[in-house]
Amino acid sequence: MKSQHHICLTASEIGGLWTTYINDTFSSCVLSYFLNIVEDTQIKPAIEYAFDISEQHIRKLTSIFEDENFPVPQGFTDDDVNRNAKRLYSDHFYLYYLKNMSKVGLATYSLAFSMCSRSDIRAFFHEALTRTVALDQKVTSLLQSKGLYIRPPYISVPNHIDFVESKSFLSGGFFGFGEKRPLTSIEIAHLFENSQTNSLGEALLLGFSQVVRSNEIRKYITRGVEISRKHIEYFDKTLKDDNLPVPMTWATDVTDSVEPPFSDKLILFHVSVLVAAGTGNYGVAASASPRKDVAMNYVRLAAEIARYAEDGAKLMIEHGWLEEPPQALNRKELTTR
Predict the structure, then answer these.
(1) Residue 192 belongs to what domain range?
(2) CB of 195 closer than 8 Å to CB of 236
(3) Closest Cα to residue 132, out of 201, 247, 3, 46?
(4) DSSP conformational letter for 249
(5) What pLDDT does residue 337 have?
(6) Backbone angles phi, psi at 58, to 5 degrees
(7) pTM score
(8) Is residue 228 located within the same domain as residue 135?
(9) For residues 148 and 40, is the Cβ–Cβ distance under 8 A?
(10) Rounded CA separation 57/25 (Å)
(11) CB atoms within 10 A of CB 241
């Protein structure tokens, strides 16, 4: 029973809790399949830890929704996963997957925590953030111990302090004019990271394209694979132009299985999660890249995946799979009925 001093949830808190529930029911399905198929005894505990995080969140969020008389979202259920499906990815791929998804979780939970005001909701996201940090540490240590960790490029440590003396520092050599300066360490970091995440996305979508049931969705996913490859080509070329190494790819970590471990609904939603994360990464990278050509290319690539995301949302609507997030009241509709 609520006390007379009960503090209502804000829009930020409702949005954060609702989104987290949808994402954790999705993650629970994916990780339960990974758990059932993984063979490496060192990797399995990391997947178990990630799975436990999602399951704990689902229980806690369900309790919060019930206390607030808030309809529990449908999200994803056992109907969206076949845990006994054949292996679609290698055990090593699961580690890279966990590493990437922990990065997404760190960004999501830190933002949600900073936007919430009610103490119990802040405590929930603080705990989620803390456990995701621990997951990232576990996975990073495992990748390093197995010799699988992919380090960003090394560059020389500066031996003195410099200040920018010319506006040419911003030059990107557009239309053949202006010499491109070497990439900054921050630009290198983002280019390498975005190449790496696109490579992981390419492999994930390649596997999805083999097992998805709908031909229409298969065409959509294949288009996503092509977009990822094109973006990787740009990131890698920009790094190579400065004689910097590029990340490895994971296409060989996809098996020849055609047995679906996930429903088409879950697969299509998973693509939307990857696109949303990519859009955020590109936005941050563009703002951190003073060189005009690099920043403008991030804007161009972001526009391309925004169009791709819109087409994916239309597909979800057509199939009746897009669960509607909580919205403000339509006052115009209420006053004109």
Answers:
(1) 187-318
(2) yes
(3) 46
(4) -
(5) 65
(6) -60, -45
(7) 0.92
(8) no
(9) no
(10) 9
(11) 11
245: which residues sit within 8 A by CB, 6+ positions away? 153, 239
Give the C-alpha separation, 208 to 218, whole Å: 8
Closest by Cα among 272, 217, 264, 263 to 79: 263
Residue that has been written with the tokens 């070497």 in this structure: 182
With cut-offs at 50, 70 and 90, classify the pLDDT of residue 336: confident
And the tokens for 15?
Answer: 């949005």
State the pLDDT at residue 170: 80
Rounded CA separation 289/183 (Å): 9
Count each helix (H run) and each strand (E run) in the chain, helices first: 9, 0
Residue at which a domain ends, from 114, 145, 176? 145
SS3 89: strand
Q: How many Å apart are CA 76 and CA 29, to the nearest integer? A: 7
Using CA of residue 142, residue 206, residue 225, residue 22, what is the dihedral sign? negative
* pLDDT for 163: 85
Question: What percent of the chain has pLDDT above 70?
Answer: 96
C-beta atoms surrounding 113 within 10 Å: 18
The string of pLDDT tens digits covering residues 295-320 is 999 999 999 999 999 999 999 999 99
- The distance of Cα 38 from the centroid of its chain, to the nearest Å, equals 22
262 DSSP β-pair partners: 81
The number of residues making up the chain comes to: 337
Per-residue pLDDT band at 327 (split at 50, 70, 90)? confident
Structure tokens given for 58:
């689902």
CA distances to 1, 8, 60, 69, 161 from 5, rounded to whole Å, are 11, 9, 22, 16, 56
Task: Tell me if 335 is assigned to some domain.
Answer: no
> Of 229, 238, 237, 227, whose CA–CA distance to 303 is shortest?
227
Domain identity same for 135 and 191? no
Provide the domain count of the chain: 2
